[in-house]
Amino acid sequence: YDMAGPWSRTAGHHAPLRPSPLDPQRSWRSVAAAMAYWSEDRGVPREKLVVGIPFYGRAYPVDEPFAELDPAKRKQHGTLTFTQVRSLVGKGWPAEWDAASQSPWLSPPDGKRLLIAYDDRNSVDKKAKWAQKQGYRGLFYWALHQDRMSDGTHWLLRAANRAWPVERAVASSQ
């Protein structure tokens, strides 16, 4: 994760499973590309690698995905926990699914200049299933407390566990 942020040339998903054809930095800015780098280019066995999933979002002061970022506006960038992102969805912020990258975007309903890249239950499910199918060791998260809902549940962690249950993880490692 953290493949895009205030340091980037363009706004992008910070942990997309796959690259978007609209992303000018698509050659390397995806989970699939990062894991291929470590397993194929660097020769690390897949069973020794884990896939990271962020439980936070990154906010960009832009109107649309993959827009150019103004370095002078770096202080306007931000991070939000998943629970904060989820509360915005509950307040009517429309979420859009980027089918190519298998990641969601969020923007304010009032048309303000802001775009939030984050992971939701769908993107976590897809990453977990993909990681298991690819033969990676498992998943890790940053940070668990950022997914704690007001009722004590963890939506993203639950999505990952459903996609890659402990029973299958234990069986595949034996």
Descriptive report:
With 174 residues, the chain is an alpha+beta fold. The chain has five helices and seven strands. The protein has a five-stranded antiparallel sheet, with helices on one face. Strand 4 and strand 5 form a beta hairpin. It is globular.
Brief write-up:
This protein has helices at residues 31-41, 82-90, 121-134, 155-163, 166-173; strands spanning 50-54, 56-60, 78-81, 95-98, 103-106, 115-117, 138-142.
Task: List its traits.
174 residues, alpha+beta, 5-stranded antiparallel β-sheet, two-stranded parallel ribbon, 5 helices, 7 strands, 29% helix
Radius of gyration: 16 Å
Into which percent range does the helicity of residues fall? 25-40%
Order of helices and strands: HEEEHEEEHEHH
Q: What value does the average pLDDT take? A: 93
Strand order, sheet with most strands: 3-2-6-5-4
In whole angstroms, the N-to-C terminal distance is 28 Å
Structural class: alpha+beta
The number of strands is: 7
Count of separate DSSP helical elements: 5
SSE blueprint and pairings:
Blueprint: H1 31-41, E1 50-54, E2 56-60, E3 78-81, H2 82-90, E4 95-98, E5 103-106, E6 115-117, H3 121-134, E7 138-142, H4 155-163, H5 166-173
Parallel strand pairs: 1-7
Antiparallel strand pairs: 2-3, 2-6, 4-5, 5-6
Helix pairs in contact: 3-4
